[in-house]
Write a structure and sequence with these properties.
The chain has one domain. Helices cover about 45% and strands about 20% of the residues. It is of the alpha+beta class. The chain binds zinc ion (ZN).
Length: about 100
Amino acid sequence: MIHFTCDLCGKRLEQAADTRYVIKIEVYAAYDPLEIAAEDLERDPTDEIEELLGDMEDRDAEDLENEVYKTFRFDLCPECHAAYLKDPLGRGARLRTRFGEN
Ligand SMILES: [Zn+2]
């Protein structure tokens, strides 16, 4: 029998017997259209581009990719699904951590 595991609580979910919820999260860098002024077109961007490429050479390829686009997929049991919908960004946990630091 095919089974899944809840990615939050670790509960075993049987494909036939249990309701399973799937979370797919897509995270990507938002690029807003740039306004190009006449002075931007007159400027020589060569130095700027070389500097950018130099910075990228020192970086880890996976880190660079993660900055641009990243997807996640999780399986949840009904209880964790209900809890997730109440606080999908984990704000409660963040607040608790912040207060804990004080
Ligand atoms: Zn669970």
